Amino acid sequence: MFLCLATALVHVLLVFLHVAPPNPLSQQYSRQVDAWVFPLFEQNWRLFAPDPESVNRQISARTTHTTPDGTVRVSGWFDLTAVDSSAVRHNAFPSHTAQNMLRRAWSSYLENHATDDQSRSQRALMTQRYLTNIASDRVAAHRGGSFEAIQLRVVTVPITAPTPAGGPGVAPVARGAGDTRYLPWWKVEADSHGN
């Protein structure tokens, strides 16, 4: 019983130091606090203070497959975002995963990787694997077949400001005005995508 009580008190203290404003104690023990909090006890307050999206992202994936004669075949791009959108559209009770899984996986990836896409921490490696697994599972579910590697393409387009009531219209964002990011090819194990 003492061990349970002590563990609970340490947990509450570490989570408090994680969510509290920066202070000397939380800064001194930040490594230990982060090791305890991530990834299982991460605090996300967006429910109470939402941060609305300012961009639209289209995430697509393509795969490679090596044929028995050694030829490497690259598939066309498969729009993962469109699959999520169709699962939500006209659905009175869309699942949380259809609405947020891919989007949150990409947000976590961005938070943990620089523009060179190198995983420099265990958390960064975990978010890369998570994103790879989501993409691999969705491509395999819709296309079937086997593949050895997957690459993601993320097209980011700013959301235009709404037209003020009675004011002049805001010009729509021109096609191609967004940013396109190609992630590196990631190896995929055959059993990780249902083969």
TrEMBL record:
InterPro entries tied to this protein: DUF5819 (IPR043857)
Cleaved signal peptide residues: 1-20
Keywords, sorted A to Z: Signal
Protein name, as recorded: Uncharacterized protein
Organism: Streptomyces lacrimifluminis
